[in-house]
Design goal:
Blueprint lengths: L1 H16 L54 H13 L1 H21 L5 E12 L15 E13 L6 H67 L5 H35 L29 H4 L1 H22 L4 E12 L11 E10 L7 H67 L5 H35 L13
Antiparallel strand pairs: 1-2, 2-3, 3-4
Helix pairs in contact: 2-4, 3-4, 4-5, 4-7, 4-9, 5-9, 7-8, 8-9
Length: 484
């Protein structure tokens, strides 16, 4: 009974001090403070089709941001990516693995309980000391049914810090999953718009080939009528064949984008194809949000911050190693020499115990591990701050691209219109005999270059809009992190 009282006293003492948690409590590190608005997105200079600041935030991209482009085929491809992309499946499995680690860490809060039967047959020496022949039993059987409970109280918060670390790592993994998904969806949208942009280029070149064929026929008719020259015919034919070659060359890049899309949606490239769909859309006007919201809207920033929290918890785990470990144990059961008496009260056995272990010398190992954990926290803090800086840079880059492309599109529209008038005038002059075909050829070349540049700008505007959505985190925010 005295032993039981002593053990009970140890348990009670452990329960009293079990709330102690060593190590620093986590506070989110200060991040670089941005200005109130993006430098590259002044509201007074952005046209109606461009991005604008969100005031309030209700108009910010949420959920299926790609649907803002109103493209049925793009929506279908993004849905296929959700269920078939292998990189997304791998990231999902990694997140689930990290989430299970939280349960593993939490299990250490509770005692381990084991139980089971045992059977033993023993023969002792007849010649051992203090034995009496005919009295001492030298061969006997032992039957036992025992259970054991072991518990190591979390006196210094080592388990709590471990759970805290596992939870932060799982949340970081959830942010990584969102980051992978956002990158894959943005890559799919980018490849899709690039492909459609090439289809628009091909449509323009095919139209130009048909026009050049008419000009070639015109020069041939004028040659047969004696008012043209063979030089005119040769120049017209060279122009016709050259544009036709450009139209054919586009097929190489288009095939590569089509194959990339096939891989993203989990379909073998030979079994996947997309019909020609020339790009004729204007990027949607989606608010970019305030700079401070990037801390809530970027999964990579959230992931870096959660890893900082995990690194902070590791400091507490390292500091807890300075304190003694106390283990409580209890064993109980039934033991007998025969099965008939095993379940009797007289066969009852039990024991209670406690042990404490403190390391007095480890040649500085614990001090080095604690220093290592502190330096790891400092490194992770720097990476978190750098991720914030990178986020603002990417948004500014995308906003600058959209702003400049909008200005470029206006200028190119004027250039296209002017080149069309120039070609019309040169054609009339050539038919009237007051100009050579070289003037027409020059006008044709300029018009084609301007038309292609304008078409390319439309593609770049769509791609830049996708990059801006990706830069501001798409439809994601920190509320998507699972509360583990």
């Amino acid at each position: 009974m005295r032993a039981f009282s002593a053990t009970f006293l140890v348990v009670a003492t452990c329960l009293v001090i079990v709330g102690c948690t060593v190590g620093p409590d986590y506070r989110r590190p200060d991040a670089p403070a941005p200005p109130e608005s993006f430098k590259e997105a002044p509201a007074s200079t952005l046209p109606a089709v461009s991005w604008r600041q969100a005031r309030p935030r209700d108009g910010a991209p949420r959920g299926k941001w790609w649907e803002s482009y109103n493209d049925v085929k793009l929506n279908a491809l993004e849905d296929e990516l959700t269920v078939a992309n292998q990189n997304l499946k791998a990231a999902t499995a990694q997140y689930l693995q990290a989430r299970e680690q939280v349960s593993v860490a939490r299990a250490s809060y509770f005692p381990t309980v084991s139980a089971g039967p045992s059977v033993a047959s023993t023969r002792e020496s007849y010649n051992q000391a203090n034995t009496v022949r005919g009295v001492t039993q030298f061969q006997f059987n032992t039957l036992a049914l025992q259970g054991q409970v072991l518990w190591e109280p979390d006196l210094w918060g080592q388990i709590r810090r471990t759970v805290e670390q596992a939870r932060a790592n799982a949340q970081a993994s959830a942010a990584d999953l969102a980051s992978v998904e956002l990158s894959l969806r943005a890559e799919l949208a980018t490849d899709y718009f690039e492909l459609r942009g090439l289809d628009a280029q091909r449509r323009l070149l095919d139209k130009t080939v048909a026009s050049d064929a008419d000009y070639l026929q015109l020069t041939q008719v004028r040659l047969r009528g004696g008012v043209g020259t063979e030089v005119d015919v040769a120049q017209a034919e060279a122009q016709y064949q050259g544009v036709q070659a450009q139209a054919v060359a586009i097929g190489v890049a288009r095939a590569q984008y089509e194959h990339a899309i096939a891989t993203l949606v989990g379909v073998p490239a030979p079994a996947f194809s997309l019909p020609a769909m020339p790009l004729d859309i204007v990027p949607p006007a989606i608010p970019s949000g305030l700079p401070s919201e990037l801390l809530e809207r970027r999964p990579d920033v959230a992931g870096a911050e959660r890893r900082t929290a995990a690194a902070n918890a590791q400091i507490g785990i390292a500091i807890a190693a300075y304190y003694p470990n106390i283990t409580l144990g209890a064993t109980g059961g039934l033991e007998s020499g025969s099965l008939g008496t095993l379940l009797q009260w007289s066969s009852l056995i039990w024991s209670l115990g406690a042990s404490a272990v403190e390391t007095f010398f480890d040649a500085g190992r614990r001090r080095a591990l604690t220093g290592q954990a502190r330096h790891a926290y400092e490194a992770q803090t720097a990476q978190y701050r750098q991720s914030v800086l990178n986020a603002f840079q990417e948004v500014e880059d995308a906003l600058a691209a959209l702003r400049i492309l909008n200005d470029e599109a206006v200028t190119e529209d004027a250039a296209v219109e002017a080149s069309r008038r120039s070609l019309s005038i040169s054609t009339r002059r050539y038919k009237g005999g007051v100009a050579t075909y070289l003037e027409v050829l020059t006008a044709q070349t300029i018009q084609l270059a301007n038309e292609r540049a304008r078409s390319d700008t439309t593609t770049r505007q769509c791609v830049a809009s996708v990059q801006l959505i990706k830069a501001i985190g798409g439809g994601w925010d920190v509320s998507h992190l699972t509360r583990l």
